[in-house]
User: What shape does this take?
Amino acid sequence: MKVPAAAREGRPLPLVLALHGGGGTGVHMHRLTGLDATAEKYGFFLVYPEGVEKSWNDGRADMRSVAAREEVADVDFLRAVLDETRSTYLVDGTRVYVTGMSNGAMMSSRVACELADRVAAVALVAGTMPRSIQPECAPARPVSVMLLHGTEDPIVPYAGGEVKLRGFAARGMVVSADATASEWARLDGCEAGATERAVPDTNPSDGSTIRVQAWSRCREGAAVELWKIQGGGHTWPGGWQYMNEKFIGTTNRDIDAREEIWRFFAAHSRQAASPPAAGRPSPQ
Assistant: This one.
C-alpha cells in the first residue's frame, strides 16, 4: 500500500485500488504502472490487492482459473479491502476508484456492476466486460468508466470473443471494447452520441495512435471514455514492456496512462454519498 505524504495533513484523501492481471501480483502491478509516483504526486491512497493464485474471479463463467473454478468471492473481498482501508486511514468515501490490467480490468468492470454504491469510477486497461456478466450488470447508481484498449491486443481481442493465452486452457469470452463502452453509456443513462478526438501522435516510433470517444452527458455527472489505441497491444500505455512484442504487442508511448486515468478519476466523485467513515490520521 502507498500512503502519500499528503495524508499527514489530516484531510480525507481519495483511494485507488489497482488490480493486477492474471498471473500477476501486486508487485507486478506496481512495476508495470508506476502508480506509486502518481499517488504521491496527487495525494491519494493506493492499494494493490492480490487475487487467489494470481487470478480474479471476474465473472467469466467459461474461465478455468483457480479463482473462477472455486468461485472465489472477490467482490466481497474487495469490499472488505475498502472497509479495512477506510477504518484505518482517513479516506474520502465519495472518491473511491478501481483500475486494473487485463484480468484486473475485467474484475474492475464487475466491481462497477456490483459495488456502484461504493465506487465512483473505474478504469479498464486491456480488458473489457466479460460476456457472462453483461446481462446481469445492474449498478445501483451510475459509475464513470474509462477504457484503454489496443486494436492489436493478441490476448483480449478489441473486437471481443475468446480471450487467448498460449499454453493455457479456456480463458472465457468478452464483449468488444466498443460494446463495453456503449453498454456503460446505456447503464449510466448518457445522452446518445459521443464526441471524438485524436490524441497527438507524439511518439510515431511506437507504431500506434489513439482516438478517444467520450460520453459526458450522463446521470449524476458520470462519464464514459473509450481510448482506442490503434495498433496497440496487451499493454499499459506509457508503462513497462513486460514481455516481448511478439507475445503482447507494442506499448503506446503517446500518453502516460497513469496521468490520464487520474485525470478521469479526479473529475468524478460519488454523489449523494454518506459522510466518510471516521479514520485515524495516517502514520507520520
